[in-house]
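Researcher: Please translate sequence to C-alpha cells.
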Amino acid sequence: ELKKYNGKRVTLMACSSCNASCNDCYIGYTGNRTPEDLYLQAQKLLANDMIVRIDGAEILTNLNYLKTLKLVGQNWIMTNGLRIFREPEIINLLKENSIDTVYMSYHFGIQDKIDSIPASVVDRVIELLKEHNFKIYLNCTLTSHNCDNIIEYADIAYKKGARGIGFNKIFQQGKAT
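Model: Translation complete:
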C-alpha cells in the first residue's frame, strides 16, 4: 500500500558517476540525472515547501549540478577531491555557487588500501581549500587495521585544519568490498 510522504526533507541523488574507483564505495545505485532535470525536480520540491538536499556519488563530475545546490541553499558538497586537485580553479566556481564547506574521505592508516586517491592528493586538496577559507570535515572508515588510533587521527585531522572528523565502521554496502 502506498502512503503519502508527510516529511519535509528530500534528498535528490544527482548521479552515480565518479572519477575514482574506491574499494570502500557505498554507492549501490546507477544512473545520472541531467543538470536540467535535477534543477527542475528541486524547483518542484521547493515550491511544495520541501527541504531539498542534493547528493551523489561525485557531484563534481558535472559542474552544472552546482546551480541546483545554490537553488536549494546547500552550502556544502561531499567530494573525493580529485577534480579539485586536477583543476584548482574549480574552487572559484564552488564559491560562486555559495559552497563554503567540503566533506572528504580521509582513511587514516588505510587510505591507500581502500581508496583509489592517495593521501598526498587529499592533503593537497585540504591545503587548497584552507587557503580559500573553506570549512573542511573529514570522514574516516575504521577497520581492524586502524581502529586503535582514533584519538591520534582526530588530532591529525585538527592539525590539518579540519573542523570535524566522522568515523564509520566498514560494512559491505553497494559496491564496497
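Researcher: Any highlights?
Model: The first strand starts at residue 9 and ends at 13.
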